[in-house]
Structures are given as C-alpha cells and as structure tokens.
C-alpha cells in the first residue's frame, strides 16, 4: 500500500469500515436500493460517518460521502485525514464526481480515500488520483 502523509496503515482502516458499514444500514435509498455508508477520520482520530439520503425529487439525493463530511463540519472537526466508502456490492464503489469535489475541499491532495465492501475487498486512492488538478479553496486566495 502507498504511504502518504495521512499515515494510514491497513489496520487503521478497520474502524472506518465498521462505522461506514453501520451507517450504510441507515441509508435512505428507497429509489435506488443502493445503500452506501461513509466514514472519515480526523487528525484527532475522531470518526464521523454518513449515509446516502435520497429524495422523491431524485436530483436532491445526497451521497454518503457528502453527508459524512457535512456532519464532520458541524462537529467542528479538525483536518480529515482519510475517508472510506462502504457498499455491499461486489464491484467497489468509488466516490461520484460531485463527492470528489467536496472531498477535495476538506482533504489534502495526498490524503487517502478508500472503498470497501462486505467481501473484504478494498481499493485506496489519493485525493489527487480521484480529482487531478482540483479546484481547491487555495485557488480563491
Ligand atoms: N451514492 C453514494 O452515496 N455514494 C457514492 O459514492 C455513489 C452513489 C448514492 C447516491 C444514490 O443514493 C445511490 O448511491 C445510487 O446512485
């Protein structure tokens, strides 16, 4: 596994997997039936999680990753160092495009994002790999 400045070891992902899996059970996904949980860990090793919340007006659906990060903001979280998305799908779920932009807002370019499933499969990316040349807050200063 790649080493980066978030210093996530393989065992460090386990609590995120556990929490994201729990959150996936809370998913409100009556339309897609695609249940997603996400969990993020900050530099104080606090974990935040979220699930996808759909809407009868489909476009108002909010993904698990964005709900997770919004929750962390509301808890006045310190810097998020890694985020994991969990689905009970054989094919691992990568964050959608909108979530990649929101992830780039709150995680550094070399922080890690992972996807895991019920089969103990896992794939890890850096934020930069998911969204190269991101439009980030630094560009507004
Ligand atoms: N979804 C997520 O929550 N995260 C992803 O990374 C991919 C998609 C949700 C949105 C929608 O509720 C359902 O999965 C199907 O797209």
Topology:
Elements: H1 14-24, E1 36-42, E2 47-51, H2 64-74, E3 80-87, H3 97-106, E4 112-117, E5 122-126, H4 127-130
Parallel strand pairs: 3-4
Antiparallel strand pairs: 1-2, 1-3, 4-5
Tetrahydrodeoxyuridine (THU) binds at residues 29, 32, 34, 36, 52, 54, 61, 63-65, 85, 93, 95-96, 99.
Walk me through the structure:
This protein has 141 residues and is of the alpha+beta class. The chain has one domain: Cytidine Deaminase, domain 2, CATH 3.40.140.10. The structure holds tetrahydrodeoxyuridine. Tetrahydrodeoxyuridine (THU) binds next to helix 2.
Question: What CATH first level would be assigned?
Answer: Alpha Beta
Question: What's the gyration radius in Å?
Answer: 14 Å
Strand order of the largest sheet: 2-1-3-4-5
Number of helices: 4
- The gross shape turns out to be globular
Q: Characterize the main sheet.
A: 5 strands, mixed
Write a short abstract of this structure.
This protein has 141 residues and is α+β, with helices and mostly antiparallel strands. It has 4 helices and 5 strands. The longest helix is centred in the first third of the chain and has 11 residues, at 14-24.
Name its key features.
141 residues; 5-stranded mixed β-sheet; single chain; Cytidine Deaminase, domain 2; alpha+beta; 4 helices; binds tetrahydrodeoxyuridine; globular; 5 strands
């Amino acid at each position: 596994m790649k080493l980066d400045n978030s210093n996530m070891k393989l065992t460090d992902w386990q609590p995120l997997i556990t929490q994201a899996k729990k959150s996936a059970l809370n998913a409100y996904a009556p339309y897609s039936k695609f249940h997603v949980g996400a969990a993020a860990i900050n530099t104080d090793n606090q974990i935040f999680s979220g699930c996808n919340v759909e809407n009868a007006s489909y476009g108002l659906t909010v993904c698990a990753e964005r709900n997770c990060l919004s929750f962390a903001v509301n808890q006045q979280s310190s810097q998020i160092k890694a985020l994991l998305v969990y689905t009970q799908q054989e094919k691992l779920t990568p964050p959608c495009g909108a979530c990649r932009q929101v992830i780039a807002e709150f995680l550094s370019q070399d922080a890690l994002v992972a996807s895991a499933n019920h089969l103990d499969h896992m794939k890890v990316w850096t934020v930069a790999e998911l969204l190269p040349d991101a439009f980030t807050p630094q560009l507004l200063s």
